[in-house]
Design goal:
By secondary structure, the chain is an alpha/beta fold. The protein folds into two domains: 14-54 and 337-354, Nicotinate-nucleotide-dimethylbenzimidazole phosphoribosyltransferase (CobT), small domain (5,6-Dimethylbenzimidazole Phosphoribosyltransferase, Chain: A, domain 1), CATH 1.10.1610.10; 60-330, Nicotinate-nucleotide-dimethylbenzimidazole phosphoribosyltransferase (CobT), large domain (Rossmann fold). The chain has 15 helices and six strands. The chain has helices at 2-10, 16-28, 39-50, 82-92, 97-105, 146-166, 182-193, 197-200, 209-226, 233-240, 243-257, 267-279, 297-305, 321-339, 343-354; strands at residues 60-67, 107-115, 127-128, 171-177, 262-264, 287-289. A six-stranded parallel sheet has the order 3-2-1-4-5-6, sandwiched between helices. α12 links the parallel β5 (262-264) and β6 (287-289). The longest helix has 21 residues, at 146-166.
Length: 355
């Protein structure tokens, strides 16, 4: 708990002077004000994070947090739990969607085992942060103890510190892998928002109508049984969350504490970001939403966080794929701010040419 408290306390406000300078430069560039849409406020916020108008995102990482869920016993997913471990090996072997898209974005990918129901070889090149071999079936008992909820968040913070121990990190993307994890993610936003579960719950891996109705029933049953306290984010995580969701929350807090912008991915990564920002509201200044998933609950998480996703590509994969694509846009945003000439600069250049 001490690491979590220290990390929350370490989050600093953004550099408002640089933020103002960035907005002034954007307003005076040789183009219609606001014509580059969301890239403009993104570029100004990146400048305020780094304290410079010329931001260079040279060291980008994506951490894909993996974990299993006991609630899959209730038939909420098309795929068996064993797929989670299989996908971890696929990530390591560079064969997954996130590996391809991250390479294109110039980002490195590393998977973190927060709670996969499998014993990985300790030499496997992943972050070995297992809290437990899958959560409990929260339709019947809380997903985890409060102590394990804290441990999962702490693991995410530790991962950021581990990355920094190896070298600089200019941007961190968060992704997920875990069969059944749209169920706890929907439960998390329902617990915080009070919005009806049937408005928040989607088809995940592509379940049919009967399975969707069952998934909604399972979440409603869990919320009624455990009554997670929306004023206590760790209580919500413990009762209806997941180990990888806690890890994702820790990544956001750890990155914000280190002054690193963090790009969250789809429904599960954004549910982790929501827990992070409920624990540490100051972390939201460092958070960028990559995209809006087709999962219906994603919009409600964005609305609660007050963030605008950069993209809507009808993704529903996770892994960090949306974060990888968004990193390319954020790279472009840094060049928008630094390299597009202002009217004054254009006039000076034209005058010099005339001479």
């Amino acid at each position: 708990m001490e690491l979590l408290k220290r990390s929350i306390a370490a989050i600093q406000p953004l550099n408002e002077n640089v933020h103002e300078q960035a907005n002034e430069r954007l307003a005076n560039q040789a183009r219609p004000a606001g014509s580059l849409g969301l890239l403009e406020p993104a570029s100004a916020r990146l400048a305020a994070i780094f304290g410079t108008l010329d931001v260079r995102l040279e060291n980008k990482f994506i951490v894909t947090c993996a974990g299993d869920h006991g609630v899959t016993d209730e038939g909420v997913s098309l795929f068996p739990q064993e797929v989670t471990a299989q996908m971890v090996f696929n990530f390591v072997n560079q064969g997954a969607s996130i590996n391809v898209l991250a390479k294109h974005a110039g980002a490195r990918v590393k998977v973190a085992d927060l709670g996969v129901n499998f014993d990985f070889d300790p030499t496997l090149p992943i972050f070995h942060k297992k809290v437990g071999k899958g959560t409990a079936n929260f339709a019947r008992t809380p997903a985890m103890s409060r102590a394990d909820a804290v441990k999962s968040v702490r693991a995410g913070i530790e991962i950021v510190n581990d990355l920094l121990a190896d070298g600089p990190v200019d941007m961190l993307g968060t992704g997920d892998m875990g069969i059944g994890n749209t169920t706890p993610s929907s439960a998390v936003i329902a617990a915080f928002s009070g919005i009806a579960v049937d408005r928040l719950t989607g088809r995940g891996t592509g379940i049919g109508d009967a399975a969707l109705a069952n998934k909604i029933r399972v979440i409603e049953q869990a919320l009624a049984l455990h009554r997670p306290d929306p004023k206590d984010p760790l209580d919500v995580l413990a009762k209806v969350g997941g180990f990888e969701i806690g890890g994702l929350a820790g990544l956001v807090i750890g990155a914000a504490a280190a002054g690193i912008p963090v790009v969250c991915d789809g429904l599960i990564a954004t549910a982790g970001a929501l827990i992070a920002c409920e624990l540490a509201p100051a972390a939201k200044a460092y958070l960028f939403a990559s995209h809006r998933s087709v999962e219906v609950g994603h919009r409600f998480i964005h609305e609660r966080l007050g963030v605008d996703p950069l993209l809507d590509l009808q993704f529903r994969l996770g892994e960090g794929t949306g974060a990888a694509i968004a990193m390319e846009l954020l790279d472009a945003a840094t060049r928008v701010l630094a390299d597009i000439k202002t009217f004054e600069e254009v006039a000076i250049a034209d005058a010099q040419k005339a001479e």
